[in-house]
Amino acid sequence: MKKLITNTAFFLVVLTTFIGCKKDVADKYFNPEKATTASPAGLFTAMLNNDRIAAKYWHVRTFLSQMPGVYAQTTYAANGNSIYKQSDPYSQNYWDDFYVPEGNGSGVMALYRAMEVSYSKLPEAEKATQATIMQAAKVVLIEQAAKMVDLWGDIPYAEAGSLETKATINPPKFDEQKALYTQFISDLTAAAAYFKANPTNSSFSKADILLKGNVNLWASYANSLKLRLLMRISKVDENTARTGVLEMLNNPSNYALVDGGSNGSYNPGVSDILLQPLTNSTSDLHDAFLEGSWYATDYMLNTVMLPANDPRIPVIYDKYGRMVNGKFVPNANYRAMPVTFTTTQQDNSFPDYSVLDSATFLFNQKLPGIVITASEVNFLKAEAFERWGSTTAAKTAYDIALRQSVTFYHYLNSVNQGGGYVNVPMPASTVIDTWVNSASAGYSGTATDKLAKIYIQKWAHLGVLQSMEAWSEYRRTGYPVLTFPSNGKLAGFDTPPTRLVYPASEMTYNSVNYQAVQAKDTRKTKIFWQP
Predict the structure, then answer these.
(1) Per the confidence metrics, is the pTM higher than 0.90?
(2) Bond from prior residue into 171 cis (ω within 30 degrees of 0)
């Protein structure tokens, strides 16, 4: 397994990871040893090329499947005595990958700080062109920084990256998490307004491997990320959230969203914010899943999907089966192992239960990294309308979100062309209609019932590939109501945490600043947005 490299060589990482962009990397990086001489455009491209967003082995295997996915039950895990214990080396690795480029992530903080230095040295005339890139880079930084807050709470932010900005290492203070969210929301408002008011340019289009320089999509991305963050704080700061969200939802012409045009049959490849694989990428996730997290999860399949005859099942799961007399015999039905199974029961019974679909998840070299989708946005809209507006509008958004989730997962299945896989055809509209209006999925009942359906279906949509968002939403909403077996677990680790504890590096190398947050550094301390 690949491991960390030193920060002094971080632009060598940028060089080696960028061969597939069809342009000479030297055009982007004038001096790969010094961040201060690299162009904002080249640094921005490297910032986007992030293996913590892309569908890559290391992130899925060592982080999503080890921690967030286990704590949100979007990922299968062996029911051992340490199942809820944080993996210190892998959480340290994720932390490092945010701050410095080390091969598993792009090091968005270091690259952004280097961009700030490079931008400050440009002639004024050139700054006008590069300003668009700086605004987009801020959105990318915020999306990743918000995830850091959701995982840990207070994090170093304002003072982080001194090596790039001052050519010296100054241990950074921890910024208060609520204040960071307030800053993120303000910065996203400014970024969205900038993209709405300014055209694209060739430098931006050349550098932007995410949205190809489409400023309209960048405005929608910034607004949708703002919507996500506002709803995230809505259980503890409802006035701020309600005001900000309704301002957007009541003025759609001013606040475009990544909502697929409110069309259930939208095109995810065009409308969603997805990091597509580089043209020379041949990797897939089969090792990441086959090494332990291949199996269907209990609540997702047995409780949410099967009773409703969910049309997503055939592209998310495979029935699996056993070898009988030298011949593979598939199981008759879809079903997941009970979450209460012991490890012995799991080991003895796994062939009898469903697994993740191989064409969609395991051997799909075209699987994109998921940033935000139309279905998530419409679930957020549905929640906002149900809590602060019209339940009729909420139902409309909810029904669209369900249809878009079906479209999205069939899209993921469809991009895997060749290799002997037969893509699952999109179900007939009548099949989807029956599901949308079924007793278990349909938008009915009390306001509490309706909100629960929004939360559960959004959790199901986020699924294994967006386990971090699923865990955040589970902690925020309390849905779905999951069972976490506690028998035989390590003392102090008999239930999942509510946050990750800080990595050892902060206690060792940033000890003075760590003291300010040490009292909050427990696995059961709530993130500020948790009710």
Answers:
(1) yes
(2) no
CA–CA distance, 451 with 477 (Å, rounded to integer): 9
Query: Measured between alpha carbons, how far is 319 from 216 in angstroms, rounded to an integer?
Result: 42
Read off the pLDDT of residues 492-506 as tens digits, 9 standing for 90 and up.
999 999 999 999 999
- Take residue 516 and report the two structure tokens written for it: 């300010």
Rounded Cα distance, 443 and 435, in Å: 11
Task: Take residue 337 and report the two structure tokens written for it.
Answer: 């192992």
Cβ pair 379, 387 in contact under 8 A: no
CB 530 within 8 A of CB 236: yes
Of 442, 408, 438, give the one whose Cα is nearest residue 426: 408
3-state SS, residue 174: strand
Catalogue all structural domains in the chain, each as residue range(s) with its CATH number: 36-51+106-256+498-524 (1.25.40.390), 258-493 (1.25.40.390)
Half-sphere exposure of 223 (CA within 13 A, CB side): 29
Q: Residue 295 gets which letter from DSSP?
A: B
Q: Using one digit for the tens of pLDDT, what is the confidence trace for 460-478?
A: 999 999 999 999 999 999 9
Cβ partners under 8 Å of residue 199, min gap 6: 215
